[in-house]
Amino acid sequence: MKIIDVETARGDVLYGCWYGENFRDICVIITNGNCGNVFENKFLRDVGENLEKNNISFIYAHNSGAFHRIDTLTKNGQPIGNTYELFENCVEDLQAYIDFVKNCGYKHIILGGHSYGANKVVYYLSEKQNEKIDKYILISPTDTLNLKESKKLSADELLPIALKYKEESRLDELLPYPFDNYNLYTARAFLDFIENKQAKNLPIYSTNGSWDQLEAVKQIGLFVMGENDSFAFGNTLKHLQTINENSRNKNNVIRVIENCGHTFKNKSYELSKAILEFVMG
Questions:
Q1: What is the radius of gyration, based on Cα positions, of the chain?
Q2: Are 36 and 117 spatial neighbours (Cβ–Cβ below 8 Å)?
Q3: For 122, 147, 159, 272, which has the most beta carbons within 10 A of its beta carbon?
Q4: Inside any domain, residue 23
Q5: What does DSSP assign to residue 9?
Q6: Residues near 233 by Cβ (< 8 Å), separated by ≥ 6?
């Protein structure tokens, strides 16, 4: 595995992990969800190693929402990480990795995302319909609007505080406590996570989102999720079938990995096998 860095159009430098750097046929790019990173998401390291054994390259592509906070300043003088992330930056983030792969001479590119990264992949593909991406992968895809609703108490407590910060021109200040006791946001980033309609592109349970982005994606996809993923609310197969039913291409591949949850604990080999079969199919 080799550490790479890519620079986005806005000047931020992002770091990724490249498996199979000597291959030049197929490259699978998977981007992280909220705070996700190569250290904590071991299952994606295992995916990279297994794909490499089968002569397929893999890049774990950290986007600007990787980790909670990275204090190394960007060109605009701000740190990066989930604390500061704005959803629509994902297009530039993913483009930076795709440009890297294209410059390496790969013949085939497969783009995927885990959790909130899946929403980013759908948005990117809807915005970049002429980019030559062969297939796409949604790993543990979630309805982010329903996530807000399921954490209603925390959201309802933080939202008026964030709006007050906005009125006081304090958007870049940290909120006093984390959303769901996990994600510490600036007011700007929190409002973006809660209110940005572009991120509400997998409205599996909610009524205020839109399937328009997914309906614009022409490629075939792999939708894969752990059987016990709490974001599927007890019916993982139906969760994934709903996504398939609302996609443009109804021939997507659905895989439910038994006896695991959102991060595929002890089931990373089964996940990598599903990805490998999809890539080679």
A1: 18
A2: yes
A3: 122
A4: yes
A5: T
A6: 205, 239
- 73-131, pLDDT tens digit by residue? 777 777 899 999 999 999 999 999 999 999 999 999 999 999 999 999 999 999 999 99
- Give this prediction's pTM: 0.96
Strand partners, 57: 27
Question: Maximum Cα–Cα distance for the chain, whole Å?
Answer: 55
Burial 224-256 (b: 16+ CB within 10 A, else e): bbbbbbebbeeebeebbebbbebbeeeebbbbb
Residue 86 within any structural domain of the chain: yes
pLDDT tens digit sequence for 231-279: 999 999 999 999 999 999 999 999 999 999 999 999 999 999 999 999 9
* DSSP at 175: P
Query: Could you tell me if residue 120 is left (phi over 0), alpha (psi between -120 and 50 degrees) or otherwise beta?
Result: alpha
Residue type, 214: L
**SS3 label, residue 59:** strand
Domain span including residue 236: 2-144+199-280
In a domain, 112, yes or no: yes
Report DSSP state, residue 140. Answer: S
The answer to the question of residue 40 being in a domain is yes
CB 131 within 8 A of CB 96: no
CATH code at position 29: 3.40.50.1820
